[in-house]
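Comment thread on ticket #2218

A.B. wrote:
> Attaching the input chain for the structure job we discussed in standup.
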Amino acid sequence: EVRLVESGGGLVQPGGSLRLSCSASGFTFGAYEINWVRQAPGKGPEWVSVIAVDGTTYISDSVKGRFTISRDNAQHTIFLQMNNLKSDDTAIYYCHALDSWGQGTQVTVSA
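C.D. wrote:
> Ran it. Output below, let me know if you need it in another format.
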């Protein structure tokens, strides 16, 4: 059974930073790409970033230059480093792989 567990969310002031983690189990971690997707209050899901098996990354234009995705295959974990956070980044952040979703972690950016 694929299991994805996000952590690292919280309340942060504009301009601050957070590092999200997604711990994965139940599949061959190094063999699949993994995505970060977020959903802001009252809005639909928004794709944020993906990291491929070979480490290639793609980032949404809305967060480019501020967010960085990475993976640690030994720890079966992917990370989303978020810098210079803005109020528009407030959302629940989910990781997604193999048609499975984690429970999400809340990120709130507010003064």
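A.B. wrote:
> Thanks. Noting for the ticket: The chain has a mean pLDDT of 95.
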